[in-house]
Specification:
Number of helices: 13
Largest sheet: 9 strands, mixed
Distance between the termini: 45 Å
Shape: elongated
Strand content: 5-15%
Order of helices and strands: HHHHHHHEEHHHHEEEEEEEHEHE
Structural class: alpha+beta
Number of strands: 11
Number of domains: 2
Length: 407
């Protein structure tokens, strides 16, 4: 129930704001073909925010292109937001097309060639997500708020929604329309954040996946969901909003898993693209690593510190969500049986009896011998090979990118 408390709070705030708006909308009856009621506006806004969160560059590009096409004259197009200008949405859609072409060729490209392109796409998804969160979502939610508070005259003229209820409560000489915007923008950003993290996790899984066929399947599922949301919202905005809310709830429940995967993917790309390994030297103790799938009591891909205690025991220290109170976990197994498994793009620490315990970011590539000596690992450094395909798939979605076997 504690995990659902923030979700219940958001729902309570929405219920406090919008039922008065829906009741007041009956005074201004929209035509069937042009529903300008607050309910329809809210449904469209929720669907738009969710769609952009699933794929920020594609969603923002398509949304901007639609606004550009709906504008009848050049003067109207000049007044559109920046993302609705052809100078943005056309290059954005071209980049999306190039990413799709890369994915379609993924089954024939060697991993050593495709993975750097996957890293660039991961960086693009992070940057476009930040841009959408900072500059697109606030504009969309603010536009919705202005339409709600536009007043009866604006609604009658076809420029807004009925201006009654909570948004227009008088406070002295003013009104509370600003309060609606103050609540709507953070609510929109919260919805965007949880959905974007879950969708971005798919991009990171593609980056970590060893097979192009899995990459194509993951991308196809994400694209199919985006198309389904857009088509449903077009046919019936309220049904589209209901489907979007279902996506938001699922993404909220997966937020912890998606956040850890997002952090891991960010560190992975930063280390690889900046060639950090040439400027990095592992410490003699207390190094930053990520938890593997087999560390008891610790969620997979949790960022933390691996410490060798004076008594010879290994301990992992970590902070949930990177900022909460620090926790620790004892590392199971005998250090004499542990080894550093050197992979193609990143390495790991584990053993035959324990499985993968820790993942080393790409900065450690080439420094595996130093890590093995620092933590007195009896197995030293050995080549890491993939186990059976089923184990790879299980750890891809539940833990690490691929279970490593020291050979």
């Amino acid at each position: 129930m504690k995990r659902l408390a923030p979700l219940f709070l958001i729902v309570a705030v929405l219920l406090a704001i919008f039922p008065p708006r829906l009741a007041a909308a009956a005074e201004v009856t929209p035509s069937p073909d042009d529903d300008r009621s607050p309910g329809a506006a809210l449904a469209t806004t929720v669907s738009t925010v969710t769609g952009i969160a699933i794929s920020p560059l594609l969603g923002t590009g398509v949304y901007g292109a639609c606004q550009w096409a709906e504008a009848g004259t050049e003067a109207e197009r000049a007044r559109l937001p920046w993302y609705a200008h052809m100078s943005f949405w056309l290059p954005a859609l071209v980049v999306v097309g190039l990413c799709a072409a890369k994915d379609s060729l993924g089954t024939v490209l060697p991993p050593g060639f495709k993975k750097p392109l996957d890293m660039l796409e991961t960086v693009e998804n992070k940057v476009s997500g930040l841009v959408a969160a900072g500059a697109v979502i606030p504009l969309i939610t603010a536009e919705f708020s202005r339409g709600i508070a536009g007043g009866r005259a604006a609604a009658a003229a076809g420029h807004g929604f009925a201006g009654h209820g909570f948004a227009m409560i008088s406070l002295g000489m003013g009104d509370a329309s600003w309060l609606l915007n103050l609540l709507a923008v953070p609510a929109g950003l919260a919805m965007f954040a949880v959905v974007w993290m879950a969708a971005h996790a798919v991009t990171v899984l593609v980056l970590l996946s060893p097979w192009g066929a899995i990459d194509a399947a993951l991308k196809a599922l994400r694209t199919a969901l985006l198309v389904l949301l857009a088509a449903t919202a077009l046919v019936n905005p309220r049904v589209g909003a209901a489907l979007s809310l279902l996506v938001i709830v699922i993404a909220y429940l997966l937020a912890g898993w998606a956040f850890r995967l997002t952090v891991f993917g960010g560190v992975f790309c930063w280390d690889f693209l900046t060639v950090r390994r040439v400027r990095f030297s592992p410490a003699e103790n207390d190094n930053r690593v990520f938890a593997g799938a087999n560390l008891p009591g610790v969620p997979p891909r949790m960022s933390g510190r691996l410490v060798l205690r004076s008594g010879g025991a290994l301990e992992f220290y970590y902070r949930p969500w990177l900022v909460l109170a620090e926790r620790s976990a004892a590392v199971p197994g005998d250090r004499a049986q542990l080894a550093v498994g050197k992979g193609l793009f990143f390495s790991s620490i584990g053993g035959e009896a324990t499985g993968t315990l820790f993942l080393l970011p790409p900065r450690y590539h080439g420094h595996e011998e130093v890590v093995a000596r620092a933590y007195l690992l009896g197995g030293g450094v050995k080549a890491a090979g993939l186990r059976r395909a089923w184990n790879v798939l299980k750890e891809l979605f539940g833990g690490v990118a691929a279970r490593t076997q020291v050979v």
